[in-house]
Amino acid sequence: MRFTKRDMEMIGYLKDYDEVDLSAMSEFLEVSVKTLRNQLKSLAEAMEEYGVSIQFLSGSRVRIQGHEKFIDVMNMSIPRFEMEFERRFLLLLTLHDDFLIIQDIADQLLVSKSYAEKQLSAIMKKYPDDIQSQRHYGIRYAGSQDKRRALFVRILFPYLFGEDYEAALRQFHELHFPILDYFTEDQMGRAKEALRLFRQMQWFRFTDESMQQLFLYVLFLARQRDSGNPEKPGKVDERFLEDFDFEGLEEWLRQLCMQLRLPDTREEIRYLYFLLLSLRKQKIVAQEQILEKMYCPVREILQGIYERLRVDLSQDEDLIEGLSGHIYTSVLRGDRLEVESDFYMVTSMKRQYPFGFEMAAIAADYISDMYNLTMKDDDLIYLAIHFQAAIERIKDREEKTRIVIICHFGAAAARLIRSKIERKIPDARVVGMYSLQEFMQIPEPDCDCIVTTERLVSCDLPVVYVSMALPEREMKKISECIREIQVTRLLKMNILEAIIVPVEDETAAGAIETMVCPLTEEEYVEEGYLSTVLEREKISSTSMCYIAMPHGNPAMVESTRLVIGRMKNPVNWDGAKVYCAFLFAVSADVLKNQPMAFNTFYRVLANPDVEEKIRRLQADNDLPDEVFRQRLFQIFQILR
């Protein structure tokens, strides 16, 4: 079956919850509860194939089970996503060099002529430079050969999956568009052989995403060669190609084109050379040269992150190497090989790794200034991955919860408990192991919590009692204790002292201005802070589902404060319906001393269950601020 746009919206919503209130979901999707219930019943049958269960409960609620299978659902549902007319039309144009009349377009796309005419009018206004309409002749694609190839790959790329690309195209043929009518088995075979050769080449090792794109590029080139189309790609910037000497690569490409019967003019060889350098890679032989070339830009970005967030990453060699390769490739690629961002991946990254995503947004701002290049969400994801890995390395060194073990079975038993805790709970670090008598001699233990096999008479620190065997249920108790400590630290960020403001403006920009106003008036932030919050939103929206988490430059914050904006009516915030916004104006000094404060605060807020509870809380507009503050505090307490 094909998934419709509504199916995808429902899947994206359901994957974050164990139980869902249909009234909230219907409001979010802007349909009635009755309509939503019927649509969910139809979707539930399809989801059963993947091992995901949607159970209807009393009180207009549904329970979702099998969350571990959602990754399969998301990977497989995109290729089954119903293809819009615009994409099918553009794909049709890329596969035809000549004019097509509207009746032929309608026939090939299985729609009526009147429907095609109505849709084409809007599409041609959207692509005035790339689509040509000529009376008595029809419509044709008039963009450059480079843009034609890139468009072909961009349209088909989301529909490739797994390792068998031919099988993916067969499914695409059956569900969306008769793609196999345009390519022969021989052309498919040449594209597959190209991938085999690319995997063996000595200069690069490509990501899976890049291999998928290469398959589509070679497939298109094979068809172009067989059709006799003499059109050549545009001239590439030779300066980039001459930055590094990949000795023998150009001759290797020439042999590849001859062997696979691909276009082999000088322009085509240089085009392929550019293509290989531009696609994302896992490894490149010229890494040292790239590090040297990108030294200044990467250092400037890391300095900017330090100035804004007070996190020093300048000594993280793994990060510097990863950023150098990624930024160089992104700048070289520009907007010539654009692929579509995975909306669900972007949302997930914002939820799980807010600090990494924030660093990516700062980096994107610098890249825009340096290279006049706007980083798309797809690039932000990759940048966030690099930064989050660096953050995790910091956490490994500094941010772990410190545990003391008290064990009456002896040193060997204590070491066994220590080994098990540190292996299974990455956020924990054992800082001491004692007998009860030894521990009683310590006046002020320097730790966050105590794990003990012995009963303590009194202790001001959190205590978890365990047995020598330390079964899974006791490990869970330790994890819950650590979580409680982290949330307790969060609550110390003055949730109960937050500034609460009513927001009547129904735009995101207006809401932000309302929230920044008390900070400026009380001189918690400098005058220009508002513009930094608005600029941050332009890079990538801070909205989630029901909440938004705007923030600005910490260097302009004099005193850390939290502002909570309560919306009179839900604000359309980049497609989300925002009931509450949390503006955490954190100072550079706080970030210097507590580098994970930002990450902890926003990660807890980005929990879908927390969002849902906040939505319900704010739905009662008549709730006094003090009651709202207390109940919000209780929501966080429940997490403990």
Mind sketching the topology for me?
Blueprint: H1 5-14, E1 19-21, H2 22-29, H3 33-48, E2 53-57, E3 61-65, H4 70-80, H5 85-94, H6 102-108, H7 113-126, E4 131-134, E5 138-141, H8 145-156, H9 165-175, H10 185-200, E6 204-206, H11 208-227, H12 238-241, H13 249-260, H14 266-278, E7 281-284, H15 287-293, H16 295-309, H17 317-333, H18 343-352, H19 354-371, H20 377-399, E8 401-406, H21 411-424, E9 428-434, H22 436-440, E10 449-452, E11 463-465, H23 472-491, E12 499-503, H24 508-521, H25 529-539, E13 547-548, E14 561-573, E15 576-585, H26 588-593, H27 597-605, H28 608-619, H29 625-638
Parallel strand pairs: 8-9, 8-10, 10-11, 12-14, 13-15
Antiparallel strand pairs: 1-3, 2-3, 4-5, 6-7, 14-15
Helix pairs in contact: 2-3, 5-8, 6-7, 8-11, 10-11, 13-14, 14-17, 15-17, 16-19, 17-20, 18-19, 18-20, 19-20, 24-25, 28-29
